[in-house]
């Protein structure tokens, strides 16, 4: 499913295996548990880097598992369940008390793209991998928190149109031009090394994680409200 490794200031969260890391109950629960572990061990200067094995960062919700219910109503119930339990995962990332970096070494589709977009910084390969929203192709509507997430994280309405209403498959360099991705690098190692370099710059600031999380929520008020992330006062002793 996934592993967490602590390396100095870094927490390296890895989606393991050579499959396409579809987000079903098992993987989502594994990620929630991993992020709870990361949060519990956070200190000033901590940084999360999320990466994956194989050709996919994540291929979205586990639709084969939903369809395996054996009936239309059963599939709908299973898909609804996935949507409900994925929402706290997005909330966990947006409230994590540290900077977060998605090192995207493969394709990130649909909910897999949303998973990446829930991080503060996205870094992609220049030689492989696309960002892709396929809901129109599948005849599925977007959950409200998906829409709020994309509106909060993407400054351009044209980029949103092309990704969501056109189903465009966007490669790394185009994603940088859209303002979605921070930078692109050659190969899996290039992406991970760039994430580490950025992480080192962020870790060196030794920011208070609680303050960082509160400011992040205030920067993205629409998605924070949809996710039920309420701001809280910071003790004057931190000043």
Give the topology.
Elements: E1 2-7, E2 10-15, H1 25-40, E3 47-52, E4 56-58, H2 63-67, H3 72-94, E5 100-104, E6 107-109, H4 111-117, E7 121-125, E8 130-132, H5 135-138, H6 144-153, H7 157-165, E9 170-171, H8 172-178, E10 183-185, H9 187-203, H10 209-219, H11 221-226
- The helix fraction, in percent, is 40-55%
The value of Rg in angstroms is: 17 Å
What is the count of DSSP helices, taking H or I runs of 4+ residues?
Answer: 11
Strand segment tally: 10
Order of helices and strands: EEHEEHHEEHEEHHHEHEHHH
> How can the largest sheet be summarized?
6 strands, mixed
Beta fraction: 15-25%
Task: Give unreliable regions as ranges.
Answer: none
Mean pLDDT across all residues, rounded?
A: 94
Shape: globular
| Helix-and-strand structural type | alpha/beta
Strand order of the largest sheet: 1-2-3-5-7-10
Distance between the termini: 40 Å
What does this 3D model show about the protein?
This protein is α/β, with parallel strands linked by helices and 239 residues long. The protein has 11 helices and 10 strands. The protein has helices spanning 25-40, 63-67, 72-94, 111-117, 135-138, 144-153, 157-165, 172-178, 187-203, 209-219, 221-226; strands at residues 2-7, 10-15, 47-52, 56-58, 100-104, 107-109, 121-125, 130-132, 170-171, 183-185. It has a 6-stranded mixed beta sheet with strand order 1-2-3-5-7-10, sandwiched between helices. The longest helix has 23 residues, at 72-94. The chain is globular. The termini are far apart. 42% of the residues are buried. The mean pLDDT is 94.
